[in-house]
Design goal:
It contains 5 helices and no strands. By secondary structure, it is an all-alpha fold. It has a domain at 29-83. InterPro entries: DUF3243, Uncharacterised_YmfJ, YmfJ/YflH_sf. This is DUF3243 domain-containing protein. It comes from Paenibacillus flagellatus.
């Protein structure tokens, strides 16, 4: 995963592929969003941002309350679902 985080474009591609796989496996958007929040929590707690885009996302995530984090996760999914 470290290589994926070096480039924000690569991260979006990776996330897009995972969202597509989840949809193909029959997961609902709500389930995918819940998983995205868990991934966001993990990344915020355990992974140092590799680029300026990830740094901004981390700062937003850290400033957000629970509801806002859910919104950020849904927006990230929406961002990559259009790719």
């Amino acid at each position: 995963m470290a290589t994926v985080l070096k480039s924000f474009e690569r991260w979006k591609q990776f996330l897009s592929e995972r969202v597509d796989q989840a949809h193909k496996a029959g997961m609902t958007d709500e389930t995918i969003s819940k998983l995205a929040v868990q991934v966001g929590e993990f990344l915020s707690d355990k992974v140092d941002p590799e680029n300026k885009e990830e740094r901004v996302l981390k700062e937003l995530w850290d400033a957000a309350d629970e509801q806002e984090r859910k919104t950020i996760a849904r927006l990230m999914i929406k961002l990559v679902s259009d790719q």
